[in-house]
Amino acid sequence: MTASISTIVEAMERIAPPHLALPDDNVGLQAPGPVSVEKVLLSLDVDVRVVNEAKRRRANLIIAHHPVIYRPLSAIRSTDFSGRVILSAIRNDIGIYIAHTNLDCAQGGVNDALADRLELKNVRAVKVTHSEKKYKLVTFVPETHVDKVRSTMCEAGGGAIGEYSYCTFQTPGTGTFLPSANATPFLGSMGKINKEAELRLEILIPGASLSAVVHALKEAHPYEEVAYDVYELAEAGRRLGLGRIGELPEAVNFKDYVDLVKRRLGIKQARITGRDRAKIKNVAVCGGSGGDLLAGVLAEGAHAYITGEMRYHQLLNADASGLCVVEAGHGATERVVLPVLAKKLQRKIPGVEYILSRVRTDPSDWM
């Protein structure tokens, strides 16, 4: 089976909404690709080796984390890195889609995947960049179709409260309507006021998912004219942003936690700062380069900070502040999102195959 590239882009924009990207970050489609997609290759980076891998493994769309084009190009030339990659993709009719800092900030994105991999609970953003609006949608559905409508709206992004999904509330009632001569009612009779048993169905929706949930409602609802109300709530929705801080189930020795980090990230070595702290419980994480979040990490009261890399003076500051740091590598701290992303896409568009790149694009290594 196949899916249109626009369908996959729409799914990615629900997973990692583009408005979450930091200013001047270049996200979205960077090489057009084919109209229909059979197989998607997920990778941290895209270079010519990854494009060749996609061709060899018959994937005609690459979804990657790091942009190929960071700054506007005046021309596409084979003499520079970005130009070679884009030309190779175009020649082979392979699309390239980028989800960068929007995937870092998104719920379930890079930093949430890293926090989950490292066994953190009660997780929240270190630096909040977006506070989403929250809405309640109320609709009225015949009992025969309420499960279908509920499921469709929840799959489109509604009905999540904390660690719970498919959260709705329903109450019975009676709907009335008088069809016009041009109507084709699902229930009732023409020419008279009809009274039909219906269920009032209520669901919470994050702002980024509102349009998708309303569209899903209209597609699943059996009525010709769907009655629904949308209320903006005074309470703010999800607070999204960079980095995550959470708690371990119990305090552990820093050395033991370093061993867990290496094991869970599949690395043999890591650079550490702050060997003297006996126990840690509050842990912050940031995939990739996390030095710029140091002030926020310290303000949140973290005992340890797991990131890809930090600059020397930032490590001096961390050490002087009593913070333990694990530099686990840029790629190792971000790659954890790829299998998570594949599962999310598989649920949303099951007719397409999703595979992970086998090319090691991280240019640095420990010896």
- What is the topology, as strand order, of the major beta sheet? 7-12-14-15-16-13
Supply the number of structural domains: 3
CATH class of the largest domain: Alpha Beta
Report the average pLDDT across residues: 94
Which stretches of 5+ consecutive residues score pLDDT under 50?
none
> What is the overall shape?
globular
Pfam family, one: DUF34_NIF3
Organism: Abyssobacteria bacterium (strain SURF_5)
InterPro entries: DUF34/NIF3, DUF34/NIF3_bac, DUF34/NIF3_sf, N-reg_PII/ATP_PRibTrfase_C
GO molecular function, one term: metal ion binding
Q: Can you describe this structure in just a few lines?
A:
The chain has about 375 residues and is an alpha/beta fold. It is built from twelve helices and 17 strands.
Helix and strand topology:
Layout: E1 3-4, H1 5-15, E2 28-31, E3 36-37, E4 39-43, H2 48-56, E5 61-64, H3 81-91, E6 95-98, H4 101-105, H5 110-117, E7 121-131, E8 134-141, H6 146-155, E9 168-177, E10 194-206, H7 210-220, E11 228-232, E12 239-253, H8 254-265, E13 271-273, E14 279-289, H9 294-299, E15 304-309, H10 312-320, E16 324-327, H11 330-334, H12 337-348, E17 353-356
Parallel strand pairs: 4-5, 4-17, 5-6, 14-15, 15-16
Antiparallel strand pairs: 1-3, 2-6, 7-12, 8-10, 8-11, 9-10, 12-14, 13-16
Question: Can you tell me about this structure?
Answer:
The protein is of the alpha/beta class. It folds into three domains: 3-100 and 335-356, NIF3 (NGG1p interacting factor 3)-like (Udp-n-acetylmuramoylalanyl-d-glutamate--2,6- Diaminopimelate Ligase, Chain: A, domain 1, 3-Layer(aba) Sandwich); 110-129 and 241-328, 3-Layer(aba) Sandwich (Udp-n-acetylmuramoylalanyl-d-glutamate--2,6- Diaminopimelate Ligase, Chain: A, domain 1); 133-232, Alpha-Beta Plaits (2-Layer Sandwich), CATH 3.30.70.120. The chain has twelve helices and 17 strands. The chain has a six-stranded mixed β-sheet. Strand 14, helix 9 and strand 15 (304-309) form a beta-alpha-beta unit. The radius of gyration is 24 Å and the shape is globular. The model has no long low-confidence stretch (mean pLDDT 94).
